[in-house]
Amino acid sequence: MMRKRFFDRNKALAGWLAVAAAAAMLGGCGNGGSAGDGAAAENGGAGADETEQTNKSLTLSLAEDIEGDYEDAFDEFRRLYPDVDLQVETYSPMEETRQITKQQAQVMAGEGPDILMFKCYGSDDLYKMMKAGAFAPMDAYMEADETWNGGADYVQGVIEAGKFGGSQYVMPLTFNGMCMIASQEGLDAAGVSAEDCKDTLSIMRQVASIYDKGYQKRVLGDYVQFTTFPEMLTGQFLDYEKGNVSVDAETLRQACELYSRMYDEETEDVGGSSGNFGIGYDIARQDAYVFIGMNMDRSLSVAGGIAAEATPVCIPIRSGDGKTLASMMQYAGIRANSPNKQNAYNMIRILMGEEAQEDIMGIYCPVNKAVIDKAVDGILERNRTIQDAETPVGELSGEFVTAYKDSLKDVGHCYIPTTTCVNKFYEYMNPYFAGEADYDSCMKEFEDYIKIYLSE
Predict the structure, then answer these.
(1) Of 84, 139, 298, 420, which has the most beta carbons under 10 Å away?
(2) Which residues 6+ apart lie within 8 Å of 239 measured at CB?
(3) Of 395, 454, 456, whose CA–CA distance to 20 is shortest?
């Protein structure tokens, strides 16, 4: 039995396809809210119908395991807007997909929480949700908000990922930086050059070449790190407006050929094959597994471990045009037919502030640039306090730290994970990867599927 080479993440939300009709019927999409009685106007308001903004309530729901991370933000909202009744509902993190389906039905009925807030892997397909009209655009609120200042305080490439058709429909709260950590000595031993790691395709080329030298899961890792390579090639796998694959056909063909050289049918499924997504290092061998740095703490711990006896190297993963890649993880958006859009925007802006970002960053990278600096500096300070532990931790150079911070703050392309489509890509391409079918026939089946998927 051939194994599938992809993460079994949360299943796609098929029901969101009906949101377009619901949004059109309810007429809630695209209208700004008014500043109301003045309490909500502190962050700026966009003039509109009074029915668009009751200025009395705000509802949101989130998984109960992260509620504590947001408590300070909720308290801040209540302090700034005492006349607004903030209602927070929680649900089990195991029920996120069901909650999305539930909220889709509520949107169709003109009900549900004012703020839709999920992890991207739990709300596939977010591009389709934006296209269908599930969210209200925030542009008018942002323009009227003097504190926004063009988004200067935030990682601009990540903020841009929340746009569709030129409008800001969702606001990213956290993201995954894409940075590989390795040792210079390990790269030299394998005959690999960090300077040649210019983009995802060139990195895949080097990984495939060192497989022939017996370096599986060493230095530049293994196929696990490229599970989402269709998205990693350019920063967006599909063109939702043109209805096709956005990656250049020859680039995608080359990437698939390289991936097929790394493919191992007997390896356990990706979710548990390399342990913690490739985190690990062996100083005696002077190498490190690839780590695509969604976890700053673990990334810097690996780098510190290498620095104890070798030279850590930071290799940002870039798209074909040389821009650093990232993927959005958590977001907040305003329900298209919410009567409390201004209140919802005000809450979202608090979630993006420094204090809230410090509370919610957790495993993922905050979108606030100042908080990124604080987080990295704090992790380095903690690492220094455990230098006498069983696992030695070396001092990271200022050059390395700067390069690492820059890889997070200078994102050029940030994409929203399209779990369903990537899973389907592997489903159709697995026969090719396993040597059981030719490339063109597998790709044609996938492209036929995509045409239908994007036209629905």
Answers:
(1) 84
(2) 245, 246
(3) 456
Cα gap 430→422, rounded to integer Å: 12
Beta strands in 136-254 (DSSP E): 163-164, 167-168, 170-177, 179-183, 238-239, 244-245
DSSP string for 4-49: P-S---SPP-GGGGGHHHHHHHHT-TTPPPP-TTTGGGGG------
Are residues 375 and 341 in contact, defined by beta-carbon separation less than 8 angstroms?
A: no
pTM, two decimal places: 0.81
**Residue 282 dihedral angles phi and psi, to the nearest 5°:** -135, 100
Cα 230 from Cα 238, distance rounded (Å): 9
What are the E-state strand segments in 68-190? 85-91, 115-119, 163-164, 167-168, 170-177, 179-183
Strands (E), 137-279: 163-164, 167-168, 170-177, 179-183, 238-239, 244-245
* Segments in the chain below pLDDT 50: 1-51, 265-281, 283-284, 286, 289-290
Q: For residue 6, how many C-alpha atoms fall within 13 Å in the half-sphere facing its CB?
A: 21
Nearest by Cα to 306 from 402, 179, 182, 180: 182
